[in-house]
Amino acid sequence: MRTVVTIRTWSVTADLEALRPMTWNVSLYHLATQRVTSCLVPGLLLTLAGCCTFGDRANKQHVAEARELTSLGLNALHRGRPAEASRFLRQACDTSPEDTRIRRHLASSLTESGQTDLAVYELKQAIEQSAVDPATHVELGTLLLAQGQPHAAREQAMLALDLDRQLAEAWLLKGKSEKAANQLQVAIDSLHRAANYDQDNRETRLELAECWAASGEPLRALTAIEIHNASYADDQIPIHAIELAGRVMIDLKQYFRATQMLGEATGRNDATAQTWILLSRAQWAAGDRSTALLTALSAQQAFPENSELPDLIAILNSESDGSLHAAR
Fold it and tell me: Residue 174: which residues within 8 A CB-CB, separation 6 or more?
């Protein structure tokens, strides 16, 4: 609701002018004018103050409501209920549409529920509202990269770096995007920049190791992956990182280390078919084909749908005792 206040101070002066006799003392005229003005101005100020107070009260009410809805949404998200979180955060956005932080939270909940297209839309809306937050560009770029758009993701990383050249997350996104586009050397340079600004970031170390391995630099890859893995307790190292270390060790002909590490990893609940395949290849490369075949056959029982295992078993079976396969 808009309040319009019209002030006609000129008419008061005009009326006084009309009533003023030529013989009035000038000081009396000014005194009358001041008295009239002194009556009008306080009233005007009170009116405007009332309008401002009403507007401030309404704005504070919207902010409080949006804050409460956001809190409910984040609590639902932390409890693993992204759909419920999205409902609360959508209401919060409608209540306070100019708050880009709420929109970012909404995008996170949409991502968790698998609605990445909507999440991308919300982040783009947030950037349109305020393009000065580099973190929003990084979040949008991360989603675009997950959708298989490395060039668009790199563009968002560059926009974030234009706002903050020392933002490690932006350099990491840039490096990951370049790696996805097979620009390995450029990616390595970007990831080194990310590591310089955040030396403890595990993901950066893992990405560096993968880039070095793909570039045919297994020794550098092993250094990077060992730094990464050393930041975890032995039983908490991600299985993907163990597999990468095993692959690099095989390339460096460190077969005993590879078989020992991968052998322990196959006993974990999160071991994959690739864990077993790498163990079998390490055993084979070390000259123990029979054990390698047993490992591959065990893997096939655990992962019957894996397409790589039949070829590996065929090769190992043809170069070892064929009765071993029949016995299994």
Answer: 154, 157, 158, 161, 190, 194
Spatial distance between the Cα atoms of 324 and 315, rounded to a whole number of angstroms: 13
Average pLDDT over residues 276-293: 96
Please tell me the predicted confidence (pLDDT) of residue 13: 42
What is the token pair recorded at 127?
Answer: 């950037």
203-229 in b/e form (b: 16+ CB < 10 A) is ebbbbbbbbbbeeebbebbbbbbebbb
**pLDDT per residue over 229-241, tens digit each?**
999 999 999 999 9
- In this prediction, residues 150-163 reach a mean pLDDT of 97
- State which H helix or E strand residue 326 sits in: helix 322-327
Residue from 259, 260, 291, 264 nearest 278 by CA: 259
A 10 A CB-CB count for 137 gives 29
Structure tokens at 225: 């992956």
Residue 235 is given by DSSP the state G
- Alpha-carbon span 210 to 194, nearest angstrom: 15
Collect all residues with Cβ–Cβ distance below 8 Å to 242 and sequence separation of at least 6.
229, 261, 262, 265, 275
Residue with tokens 């070390």: 286
Amino acid letter at 174? K
Q: Could you tell me which residues come within 8 angstroms of residue 111 by beta carbon, excluding any fewer than 6 positions away?
A: 119, 143
